Amino acid sequence: MKFKLHNRFKSLFGGLLAINLLFAAPAMASIQEQAADTAKVEQAATPAVTADSAAAPADSAAAAPAATDSASVSASSTSSSTVTPAASTTKEEKKIDPQVYKNLTYYILLFLVLCTVVAVIGKVQSIYVLTKKVNGKYNPLANNTLQAALLFVFLIGFLGFVYYGYAVWGSWSWRPAATEHGKDIDRMFIITTVIITIVLVLVHILLLTFTFIYRMRAKRKAYFYPHNDAIERLWTIVPAVVLTILVLFGFFTWRSITNIPEDLKKSALQIEVLGEQFMWTVRYPGADGEFGKRNYKLTTPLNSYGIDYNDKTAWDDVKGDEIVIPVNKPVRFHIMSKDIIHSFYIPDFRVQINAVPGMTNYFQFTPTITTDEMRDKMNDPQYNFVMLCAKICGESHYNMQKNVRVVTEAEYKEWLSKQAKFFTEDLQKEFAQAEGETTEKNDRIAASIN
């Protein structure tokens, strides 16, 4: 028995040594290659320095000052042309730092050492059990108390991490909503979280304490409990009632947010947002307060939005380079997609709704905190509200962001007056040519827009 165990450990350490050599070889090779490259660069630079030193006496032997200047210029150009290839070669060669291989080898070896320690402990345990069996002192139930105690220790650690998660990570991730309806969503979220936390804690306390209290011991027989209708009704009806209340709570909260009276819909500031891979386009209505018609068939390189400029209400539509909205004023977003499903998501506003091709979704809310006020609350002068895409829509999904600023009414009007219009001069010429209009009519179009 001892000889077999010795052979096993010998094979294990032999395998560790082989793996060490396997991962150490790339690091050594990389170090040697880097040393060779450094030597080549030094050799390439040495002739350039010699040429410079040889050119210096020739320059001093020249009689005329003009000749001296021309010779020095030519020498400097020669030296620069000689050094350049070596420098460019050095820049083009991008190699992994040998320290990376060393770190990788170190952590792999550390992991293998830990595995070896665990294996050794397991072998010692198995030898201990085998010795007990040989001496006739082995008790198969003796390990139950240890396992139950370990589970109870895990329960204490688990409850500690739950508290830490709420106390530390919760304060990092949670901040007050910046909209009126956000308070309702936050209240619903908090109630749901409280219920889930109570269930989580109670279930784990019961599960991990029962394993200790009712562990199998000698001269103790488990009670067979085949069926109980009262308990089954209890654990079926109570969760069903709680979940039903939560679902209805969420349903009525969502209806109160999305079911807006017609007069409030019309009086709100209208903003149109079009999502496409991988950007958002924002359109504000002009002075007439109406959006021009849009038709995907009219999409051209100049008119990527597909606006129908036969509709004169489109002539003064404004293109926003960011989303700027006035505080304490209702805002209604028209959300669309040009290609695939995207998601209009502003975390601080508790706003998220899909942008679906071929249809328009709406979301109306009232911001209550300006960007400057939020920066003061967060103690972060660089903080900004951000509109994101919450649907993974392709390789550049991360790039679908838009800055959102909440400002005063006066600041909003000033910003809007400085934004460019969709109907640019190039589009006006294209539209005039398509309609066969004269230059005079084209000027009238521009005048009406301005």
From TrEMBL:
<keyword id="KW-0812">Transmembrane</keyword>
<keyword id="KW-1278">Translocase</keyword>
<keyword id="KW-0472">Membrane</keyword>
<feature type="signal peptide">
    <location>
        <begin position="1"/>
        <end position="29"/>
    </location>
</feature>
<feature type="transmembrane region" description="Helical">
    <location>
        <begin position="189"/>
        <end position="214"/>
    </location>
</feature>
<dbReference type="InterPro" id="IPR011759">
    <property type="entry name" value="Cyt_c_oxidase_su2_TM_dom"/>
</dbReference>
<dbReference type="InterPro" id="IPR036257">
    <property type="entry name" value="Cyt_c_oxidase_su2_TM_sf"/>
</dbReference>
<dbReference type="GO" id="GO:0042773">
    <property type="term" value="P:ATP synthesis coupled electron transport"/>
</dbReference>
<feature type="transmembrane region" description="Helical">
    <location>
        <begin position="104"/>
        <end position="124"/>
    </location>
</feature>
<keyword id="KW-0679">Respiratory chain</keyword>
<keyword id="KW-0813">Transport</keyword>
<keyword id="KW-0249">Electron transport</keyword>
<dbReference type="GO" id="GO:0004129">
    <property type="term" value="F:cytochrome-c oxidase activity"/>
</dbReference>
<comment type="function">
    <text>Subunits I and II form the functional core of the enzyme complex. Electrons originating in cytochrome c are transferred via heme a and Cu(A) to the binuclear center formed by heme a3 and Cu(B).</text>
</comment>
<dbReference type="InterPro" id="IPR002429">
    <property type="entry name" value="CcO_II-like_C"/>
</dbReference>
<dbReference type="Pfam" id="PF00116">
    <property type="entry name" value="COX2"/>
</dbReference>
<dbReference type="GO" id="GO:0005886">
    <property type="term" value="C:plasma membrane"/>
</dbReference>
<keyword id="KW-1133">Transmembrane helix</keyword>
<dbReference type="GO" id="GO:0016491">
    <property type="term" value="F:oxidoreductase activity"/>
</dbReference>
<keyword id="KW-0732">Signal</keyword>
<feature type="domain" description="Cytochrome oxidase subunit II copper A binding">
    <location>
        <begin position="266"/>
        <end position="418"/>
    </location>
</feature>
<dbReference type="Pfam" id="PF02790">
    <property type="entry name" value="COX2_TM"/>
</dbReference>
<comment type="similarity">
    <text>Belongs to the cytochrome c oxidase subunit 2 family.</text>
</comment>
<keyword id="KW-0186">Copper</keyword>
<protein>
    <recommendedName>
        <fullName>Cytochrome c oxidase subunit 2</fullName>
        <ecNumber>7.1.1.9</ecNumber>
    </recommendedName>
</protein>
<feature type="transmembrane region" description="Helical">
    <location>
        <begin position="234"/>
        <end position="254"/>
    </location>
</feature>
<dbReference type="InterPro" id="IPR045187">
    <property type="entry name" value="CcO_II"/>
</dbReference>
<dbReference type="GO" id="GO:0005507">
    <property type="term" value="F:copper ion binding"/>
</dbReference>
<feature type="transmembrane region" description="Helical">
    <location>
        <begin position="145"/>
        <end position="169"/>
    </location>
</feature>
<dbReference type="InterPro" id="IPR008972">
    <property type="entry name" value="Cupredoxin"/>
</dbReference>
<keyword id="KW-0560">Oxidoreductase</keyword>
<keyword id="KW-0479">Metal-binding</keyword>
<feature type="domain" description="Cytochrome oxidase subunit II transmembrane region profile">
    <location>
        <begin position="166"/>
        <end position="261"/>
    </location>
</feature>
